[in-house]
Amino acid sequence: MEEREFAGTNFIHEAINKDLEEGVYNRVQTRFPPEPNGYLHIGHAKAICINFGTAQKYNGKCNLRFDDTNPTKEDTEYVDAIMEDIRWLGFQWDQVFYASDYFDEIYAAAVKLIKMGKAYVDDLSAEEIREYRGTLKEPGKDSPYRNRSIEENLELFRQMTDGKFATGEKVLRAKIDMAAPNLNMRDPVIYRILHAPHHRTGDKWCVYPMYDFAHPISDTVEGVTHSLCSLEFEDHRPLYNWFLQELGYAEPSRQIEFARMNLNYTLTSKRKCLKLVTDGIVDGWDDPRMGTLCGMRRRGYTPAAIRDFCERIGVAKANSVIDFGLLEHCVREDLNKHAPRAMVVLRPLKLIIDNYPEGQTEGIEVEVNPENPEVGKRTVEFSRELYIEADDFMEEPPKKYFRLSPGREVRLKSAYYVTCTSFEKDENGNVTCVHCTYDPETRGGDSPDGRKVKGTIHWVSAAHALDAEVRLYDRLFNVENPSDESKVGSFLENLNPASEEVLTGCKIESNLKGVQPGEAFQFLRLGYFCVDPDSTDGKLIFNRTVALKDSWAKVNK
Question: Which of 7, 91, 209, 248 could pair with 52 in a Cys bridge, judged by C-beta atoms 3.0 to 4.6 Å apart?
Fold first, then answer.
C-alpha cells in the first residue's frame, strides 16, 4: 500500500517528529499487540491503521505481537483469524512475535526487581488486594507481607515457579507507593500463578506476567520506539515508564495514547460478543451483523472503505462516539466506484407484455458500472414474461407514486415503455400477475416522440432468471450504545428484531451465474450485495452489505 497521511491534526506524528528532531530516536518502529482471545472488531481497525500507517509514513517497521500472557483464554484459532484480518485490511507486518517469546526476559526482570527490593510476594487474595488498595480519595494500606526480606521473596517466587502453590494462592507485586494518587502505582501485581497449559509454551510455566509488566518489557526488548495504544492506558503510562526506568533499559520505548473508536449501534466487548455467539443469537463470529472484521468482510464491507473510514475520523486525544452512518457512507462510496451493476428482483411479481412476440428473446445492453465506463457493457435477456418487484405495482396508488398501476406508463430500465392494462389476483386478493403493453419504438428506454415518464423500474426475464436466496441485514441493536446497561438495560434487551430477513425465491439476472464468494454487486435500486461464503452453484446466496441510502438517518431524526 502507498504511504498516506492521516486526516486532521495528528498529534502522534507531531510527537514522533519531535523525537526524531531531538535525537531521542533515529528510527520509527511500532507494533500491533492483540490478545489472541477473540476476533478483531472495527475498533481494532483503527489501531491497525494507526500502527501500520505510522510505520509506513516513516519508512519504519511494524511488528505483529500477540499478547499471550493469559493461557486460559487464548487459542491458535484466534491467532490465525487475527493474521487473516490484518492481511485483508491491506497491511503486512515486518515480523511476528509473541509475548511468550519474552517470558524468560520478563521473568528475569521480575527477579531483578526482587533483588533490588522493588518487588515482593504477597499472600493476600485478589479481593483483599482490592480492599487494601484504597480509593481515589483515600490512600491504600501496606500489605502485611510487603516487608518480607529479599531472600524470602526470592525463595517464595522460586517456589511459585516450581508449582508449589495453587492457582491464585500467591502473587508477585511491585513495591512502589500505596499512597500514590494514581491507583495503578499502588503496588500492582506483576506475576500470578496459573496452572494452565499455554498454547505455545505448554506446561513450562505456571506463573505468568500481568499485561502491565509484560508490555513495556516486550516493547523495549523488541526495539519498539513508539508504543501506540488506546486512551484507557493513559493512566498506566507512569507504571509503564517506572518499570523501564527501574530495570535500566538503555533505549526504552515511549507510550503514546490515542482515543479509541466508539461506534454507535455496535458492540465490541469480547465478552458480550461471545455471549451473542454461544447463545445462538448470531450465527458465529463472522455473522454479517457483528462488529467483527470477519463479520464485516462476510457482509461485503471493503478494506478500502474501512481504511478510508479510519482516516476520516482521524487521530484524537479525547474519546467521542462516531456515527455508524459514516462507516456505511464510506462503504457506499467505495462500492459505487467498483461494484458491477445487476438486476435482481427480491419479491417477484410476474409481468406479461401481451403485445410482445411470444417466444422472442432479445438482448438489452446495459452498462456494467456507469461510474467506470471503461469496463464496458453486459447483455441482459428480455422476453415477453418478466419479473418485477411486488411493490413496483399498486392497484390504487397514492399521490407521488410513479411506478406501475392501472393505466400508467413506466420505463423498464434500459428496455421499453410499458403501460399496465390489467392484473390478476388469487383467492386471497393478492396480485399475482400484471399485464401490460409495450411501445416497440421506445427500445433503450427513450421515446422518439419526446414523451416522458416519471417511473423507471428494474426487471428480469422470467425464462432466463436464476433463483437465489438474499439475506437483508441491518443493525443488530436498536439503541446507540448497547453496552451502556445503566441507561438502556441489558444489551440483549436492545436487539433489533429486523436485523436479518431471509428471502428465498429471489430472481436474478443470468449474468450472475458462477459468481464467487466475496464478489460485490450493486443490485439496481436495492443496494449493495455480496456473495456469501455458503453460496454454491446450486444455491446462490447474497448478503446485503448496505442499502443505497441511509434509512436510519430519517428514522432517528
Answer: 91
